[in-house]
Design a protein that fits this description.
Number of helices: 10
CATH superfamily of one domain: Alpha/Beta hydrolase fold, catalytic domain
CATH architecture of one domain: 3-Layer(aba) Sandwich
CATH class of one domain: Alpha Beta
Structural class: alpha+beta
Distance between the termini: 42 Å
Number of strands: 39
Amino acid sequence: MIRLSIIFLGVSLMAGCSETPETAEPQKLEIQTVAYPETHKNHIVDTYFETDVADPYRWLEDDRSDETAAWVSAQNEVTFDYLKEISYRESLQDRLESMWNYEKETAPFREGDYLYFYRNNGLQNQYVVYRQSDDGTEEVFLDPNGFSEDGTTSLADLSFSKDGSLAAFAISEGGSDWRKIVVIDVESGEVLEPELVDVKFSGISWYGNEGFYYSRYEKPEGSELSAKVDQHLLYYHRVGTPQADDQLVFGGAEEEKRRYVFGGVTEDDRYLIVVGAQSTSGNDLFIRDLSLADGELVQVVSGFESDVNVIDSEGSTLYAITNKNAPNQRLVKFDARSPTDWEEVIPERPEVLSVTTGGGYFFAHYMVDATSKVIQFERSGKEVRRLALPDVGTADLMNTKSNEATLYYTFTNYRLPSTIYAVDMVTGVSKVHRTSQANFASDQYESKQVFYTSKDGTQVPMIISYKKGLELNGKNPTILYGYGGFNISLTPQFSIVNAVWMQAGGVYAVPNLRGGGEYGKQWHLAGTLMNKQNVFDDFIAAGEYLIREGYTSSDYLAVRGGSNGGLLVGAVMTQRPDLMKVALPAVGVLDMLRYHTFTAGAGWAYDYGTAEQSEEMFEYLFGYSPVHNVKDGVSYPATLITTADHDDRVVPAHSFKFAAELQAKTAGPAPTLIRIDTKAGHGAGTPVSMLIEQYSDVLSFTLHNMGIEQLPQVLPVES
């Protein structure tokens, strides 16, 4: 199955904390005087359509320079000196570690003679891959914790040959998007050849047991962090041959240039599917019949005007999910010999559709106000049954091979830890495969979905989660978390950190902002380009709703988001600094005039536009770009910016420049700090030990700047 799921990580940064203080008003905060490191300015001015724009901190874009390294070190020293003075910082870290320390497991999947799954014994930095034979015997198959001494090298992908005898896995070092691929014999664990390098934004799709397709860019000159990458290349690697001999399949010719290219083989090994894209939305589609010695790539879709992804095949019939003429998506089929003649299998409905395959069936996942409904269909499109889900929340279904009888899915929401279910695909009978070991009393908490009115009258859903019996007195520490972009949907997910927050009396609120995918393509487009302000307005209105309804007040409100959500926080805190007490932008896109000049940033232009494309677009971006909208003499909320030195998705220069602007211009006493992780990236693969340290610092900073000077006590673990 091939899916175009790129390339913009919505970092899931759930916040959590300790018990609400008994005082009726926020404690008077004893101001910690912060002496910021000196950040010198250079005289650099860019001209956009006759408008001069100063960029005094551009030198911080050079991530390889000694000067930038010294600045990073100095900023971290100031930040950690500040954090260590917070009396309950270590208590929060202990609490997080205690709650984190339980065995976690993923849904299993079958390859060859084994059932594979991922498991973490509690505090392991990386999940370990296990396998189970038919007699129930378990053994470790692959342990990424041995990839590096400090746990910062992670397993990024794992793919098996058709008979399960060989495996290829990708590793990420220090959180980088650049990967290396290692090929091993499944039984012996022997590494069969030198690792493949320069792999980025790639799947690993096997053709039989001979080799696999993967994607790469040419190695950039200079810094891998900030170098721009534009031409993606699809290669076929035959096991046992040098990477230099790999066959270039797509992307070499001028007419084939795409920013993103992915290749995959259908389950029956008959067709190669190639997906190409210039941005994060819209793709073209090619197919090749691998049963023909001289089979050529045949273009099925062109123009990048819609998303079309092949998900299954049967003989010469290919099944694809698409939003072409269906903003909420539909399932179609076509014959490879006449690929432009499409027949509808599952038509569009009012709810957004995604489809999972298994056992000769289609499982249609419908998103209903950001929660799951699942219906099983025959290949003909005939409805079989609706799966009975255990609650309102998120069902994550595993794709399953056509000869399998059991479908596994994981169910969760903001108060229910993940439980794995096994469904007999013939009878529809569902049973619990594995319950969560989290020590959290879910029945003591509740989630409430509300619909509030945004600035232009649009109704926006939000799920608010908290401990039962919450008093709506405006004094509850609250985290408002958002994303709002790239067609990404925020659906209910359990988080250990969020559980700690609620366990201690905190409120956690997640609005489903425009720009996301919760209501299909139109909802996405309503938060892109010159509609981007809708996203910020939706978030501001969410905060105002929480205050108006008594959940919290500006003295107790923190706003948080990562990646595109970091842009959200940066824009909202510069537009409405009075709304919140604390701002927590993480790995954010914060310089909207230059984001597209770094790494794969140009691929985000579908959502953002670029400053060069028109004067109107420049003025719009300039009007909300966080780096360019920090004003002298404004009292900004207490701000802790978080980023990482190996983030080659959203380069840390965004955060560096935003911190420098805030430190130079803010008028109030609230601190502006930046916390820069080393040997870490955009979020994926971050070691557990590093996550616990980061969250304890973020939460300590948040509570301290809400005026909470001491915690009543660390709550005992619930049973």
